[in-house]
Specification:
Layout: E1 7-10, H1 14-23, E2 27-34, E3 37-42, E4 53-58, E5 61-66, H2 83-86, E6 90-98, E7 104-108, E8 116-121, H3 123-137, H4 144-150, E9 153-158, H5 169-172, E10 184-189, E11 192-197, H6 200-208, E12 212-213, H7 216-231, H8 243-247, H9 254-259, H10 267-271, E13 278-284, E14 290-297, E15 307-308, E16 311-312, H11 317-336, H12 346-349, H13 357-365
Parallel strand pairs: 2-8, 8-9, 9-10
Antiparallel strand pairs: 1-11, 1-12, 2-3, 4-5, 6-7, 6-14, 10-11, 13-14, 15-16
Length: 367
């Protein structure tokens, strides 16, 4: 099939796609239920997918329930995105070893390049990946650890048919229908999947499945589903470029009010698919012969992240929350040409006290 055509994959034949990816040497990961949430984990078969489940999300609330019929992808998002696959939560960058002669030698650690296919990627997470690529792969310095994992990544997107009440990707322009950044896109219907190739690699894989062209009725059903998924989203940011409005509101009383609710727990930054703050630390062994230099995820909500030259430049929750929101929705435009928010709503659902980024932005930016 060409990259402009839609073909149809019957539901019972979804396993053929998984088998084709495995035959090409890809390790496959996809959505599965773990500890009451949908997360990405290694797939052994399509039976591992969350069949018939949907997610119910609200500020500070996430749960799974029956209601997806026979569908595998009748849910919006889990706490994970693609970020952990590429920007590891914790990894060793280099090691220092003391030899018998007392000399210290250094050796770098490299992330092994491996083929990984992720099935079930949402449009908002493809937009987040594009931002992560901008940060880690473009510009003067390329992150070799991220780059090694990125080169072997194959993405099978599934267009969102059941957005959660916390979703607002339509307002940011990042969903619910995937437009780019994928190798293969699936639109799940009640009896199967519309398939579309987004790369030559994806087209070659679909060609091996010898699928029949999709009927006009099925294509129309997929388009109607995408329109409905956008129309039912009730949350929205007050604009796509809030830089000037936010920086004009640096002394707004709302910062103090939200700080009274915020726990500075950093949940929002940990589930955010675009946040990239990290810390580096040394882990010496007890014998004093080897030291590991590690990188791990950090957050602008932690006290240590704002420690500069013996002084906490953001000493309280008010200034830390203000830093996060003004950077995410404001100064990202200067760095990357767009907002750092893709409308996935994870920070709303996984905030223990239910702080809603769209509500805060409206309060700060609306006269």
């Amino acid at each position: 099939m060409s990259r402009t055509e839609h073909s149809f994959l019957p539901r019972a034949a979804l396993g053929r796609l998984l088998e084709a990816l495995c035959a090409l040497g890809y390790r496959c990961a996809g959505p599965q239920v773990r500890d009451g949430a949908i997360v990405y984990a290694e797939l052994a078969s399509v039976q591992d997918l969350p069949r018939g489940l949907t997610d119910v999300q609200a500020p500070g609330s996430y749960r799974l329930e029956e209601g997806g019929g026979e569908r595998y992808f009748a849910w919006a998002t889990g706490p994970q995105a693609l970020k952990p696959f590429l920007f590891a939560p914790r990894e060793v960058l280099w090691r220092a070893d003391r030899g018998a002669d007392g000399r210290i030698s250094f050796r770098s650690e490299t992330a092994p390049a491996a083929r990984l296919a992720v099935i079930g990627v949402r449009a908002c997470d493809l937009a987040a990946l594009a931002l992560q690529d901008r940060h880690f792969l473009e510009g003067r310095y390329v992150d070799p650890y991220y780059a090694a994992r990125r080169v072997g990544l194959l993405l099978v997107a599934v267009n969102c048919s059941h957005p959660a009440a916390t979703c607002f990707c339509a307002s940011t322009g990042d969903g619910p229908h995937a437009r780019s950044g994928y190798d293969i896109a699936l639109t799940e219907l009640d009896d199967g999947y519309l398939t579309h190739a987004g790369s030559d690699r994806g087209a070659a894989i679909l060609a091996t499945l010898a699928l029949a062209p999709a009927s006009a009725a099925r294509v129309e059903a997929g388009q109607a589903q995408a329109q409905h998924s956008a129309a039912v989203q009730s949350r929205a940011l007050p604009g796509r470029n809030l830089r000037d409005a936010l920086f004009a509101a640096l002394e707004h009383p709302r910062w103090e009010e939200v700080a009274g609710r915020c726990l500075s727990c950093a949940n929002c930054t940990q589930v955010c698919p675009t946040c990239f703050c990290h810390a580096e630390l040394e882990l010496p062994d007890v014998g004093g012969h080897t030291t590991e230099h590690q990188r791990e995820w950090d957050s602008c909500f932690t006290a240590g992240h704002a420690w500069l030259a013996g002084h906490a430049v953001r000493p309280d929750t008010r200034t830390r929350y203000r830093q996060w929101l003004t950077h995410k929705l404001g100064s990202w435009h200067e760095q990357y040409g767009r907002s750092g928010c893709v409308g996935c709503g994870r920070c709303i659902a996984w905030c223990p006290v239910g702080i809603d980024i769209t509500e805060e932005a409206q309060a700060l930016c609306t006269p």
